[in-house]
């Protein structure tokens, strides 16, 4: 299986499992799950040939572990990054390390200083334990700025944190007072 096929399929799955399942007539449950048989059929009506084997390859080789299978092996979902309104993952609250990082671009800083970090179209603000990961995420949008988040202070003030299955930390918002550019 070529890397290109795996990358293309990962992009397609991100689109339908996080954002627009209705674009191919697919429905997700509130936990974001799609039936694998339904997904393969909906993709096929859309002119895309998927197979269980291809989905397994994508799930297992994906460098960011973006997708997972249900325990019964009949369903697939994106583990984070959703914007779809019908999906609301039941995530367990978890205590994060004292510091987390968020990578963004210089052009967003003025607005971030005013409004703090807000989720945009996604359901959460995404934070990482590794500075390097934050750098990679921020670089997608331009000249990178890395923000350090004082999670201890946030916890003390009642903010909640969740961790997706792939290790990405999630929270509803980060007011500017908890942010420091490094
Ligand atoms: C910025 C990738 C202006 C925020 C990554 C970011 C991640 C503001 C952008 C995941 C703002 C949103 C998510 C404010 C936040 N004013 N801009 N007040 N608050 N922003 O893509 O965190 O490859 O929705 O800094 O690895 O960049 O898709 O979020 O630049 O984990 O699996 O608004 O996406 O994963 O952009 O990335 P995004 P993100 P995948």
UniProtKB/TrEMBL annotation:
UniProt GO molecular function: NAD+ poly-ADP-ribosyltransferase activity; tRNA 2'-phosphotransferase activity
InterPro entries to which the protein is assigned, alphabetical: Ptrans_KptA/Tpt1, RNA_2'-PTrans_C, RNA_2'-PTrans_KptA, RNA_2'-PTrans_N
Keyword Mitochondrion part of the UniProt annotation: no
Documented EC number(s): 2.7.1.-
Keyword Transferase belongs to the record: yes
SUPFAM superfamilies xref list: ADP-ribosylation
Signal sequence annotation: none
Keyword terms: NAD, Transferase
One of the GO biological process terms: tRNA splicing, via endonucleolytic cleavage and ligation
NCBIfam families listed in its UniProt record: PRK00819.1-4
Function: Removes the 2'-phosphate from RNA via an intermediate in which the phosphate is ADP-ribosylated by NAD followed by a presumed transesterification to release the RNA and generate ADP-ribose 1''-2''-cyclic phosphate (APPR>P). May function as an ADP-ribosylase.
Family: Belongs to the KptA/TPT1 family.
Name of the protein: Probable RNA 2'-phosphotransferase
Organism in which the protein naturally occurs: Pseudomonas lactis
Lineage of origin: Bacteria, Pseudomonadati, Pseudomonadota, Gammaproteobacteria, Pseudomonadales
Gene responsible for this protein: kptA
């Amino acid at each position: 299986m070529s890397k290109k096929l795996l990358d293309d399929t990962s992009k397609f799955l991100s689109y339908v499992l996080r954002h627009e399942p209705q674009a191919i007539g697919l429905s997700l449950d509130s936990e974001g799950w799609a039936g694998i048989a339904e997904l393969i059929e909906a993709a096929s009506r859309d002119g895309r040939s998927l197979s269980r084997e291809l989905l397994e390859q994508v799930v297992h080789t994906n460098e960011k572990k973006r997708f997972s299978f249900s325990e019964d092996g009949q369903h697939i979902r994106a583990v984070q990054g959703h914007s779809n309104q019908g999906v609301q993952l039941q995530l367990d609250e978890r205590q994060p390390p004292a510091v987390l990082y968020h990578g963004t671009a210089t052009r967003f800083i003025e607005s971030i200083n005013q409004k703090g970090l807000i989720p945009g179209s996604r359901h959460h603000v995404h934070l990482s334990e590794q500075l390097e990961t934050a750098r990679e995420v921020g670089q997608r949008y331009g000249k990178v700025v890395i923000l350090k988040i004082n999670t201890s202070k946030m916890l003390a003030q009642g903010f909640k944190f969740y961790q997706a299955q792939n290790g990405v930390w999630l929270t509803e918002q980060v007011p500017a007072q908890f942010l420091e550019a490094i």
